[in-house]
Design a protein that fits this description.
Number of strands: 3
Structural class: mainly alpha
Helix content: 55-70%
Radius of gyration: 34 Å
Shape: globular
Strand order of the largest sheet: 2-1-3
Number of helices: 5
Distance between the termini: 91 Å
Strand content: 5-15%
Largest sheet: 3 strands, antiparallel
Length: 210
């Protein structure tokens, strides 16, 4: 009987010991799993942070390129957008000054490299036509400025089709002005350069250009 009790006691101790060890192992596994999950979350957060930082850096680069100097298509776009904003604001005098500025920027556009011969020929024609309309804008009343801005916008859209753009642009369209007229903007928000304050939001985004 004593031997039986002793044996049962050993078995009981062994069972308790095994149970404690098993729980400890299970807890360790759980902790390891939790730690691994935390590491994954940390990795994901780090990856997300890098992605966000990358986007921020990229946006900064894009903004910097948008403010580029003479000799590139982005400089033409900068002056074009400034002119558009002047027409949106019904500012005839400012549009005249910006039209003259755009003439100089268009003439300084460098097409000597990075383009095929046919693209160079097309760009020469586009620049020649755009310069003519920008010159008219620099010396006209606002009604005539807007007429020439319509053709100028077509020239700039054709230019971007060849040169590309460092920014996402929005081709917008007003169905009311002169049987339908397009222009480019850096914002999705429609601000109509053909009507200004009379019908500021008349129009829609026709397409996105990347």
């Amino acid at each position: 009987m004593r031997k039986l009790k002793s044996t049962l006691g050993i078995v009981a101790i062994a069972f308790v010991t095994l149970t404690v060890v098993s729980c400890k192992d299970a807890k360790t596994d759980k902790n390891n799993s939790t730690d691994h999950h935390s590491e994954m979350n940390a990795d994901e957060d780090h990856s997300k942070m890098n992605h966000d930082n990358s986007n921020g850096h990229h946006d900064g680069d894009k903004k910097e390129m948008a403010m580029g100097g003479n000799g590139n298509s982005q400089a033409v776009l900068n002056d074009y957008f400034n002119l558009k904003d002047a027409l949106v604001s019904d500012d005839n005098a400012k549009a005249k000054v910006l039209g003259a500025t755009l003439v100089k920027t268009l003439r300084s556009l460098d097409i000597s490299s990075n383009y095929s011969e046919s693209q160079k020929d097309d760009l020469k024609d586009i620049i020649e036509d755009a310069v003519e309309h920008a010159e008219h804008i620099s010396e006209s009343d606002i009604a005539h400025q807007r007429e020439h801005f319509k053709i100028l916008s077509k020239d700039v859209i054709d230019m971007v089709a060849i040169t590309g753009t460092e920014n996402t642009l929005y081709q917008q369209f007003c169905p009311m002005y002169d049987e339908g007229s397009a222009w480019l903007s850096m914002s999705k928000d429609v601000k109509n350069p053909y009507y200004g304050s009379k019908m500021l939001t008349c129009g829609k985004v026709q397409k996105e250009i990347n």
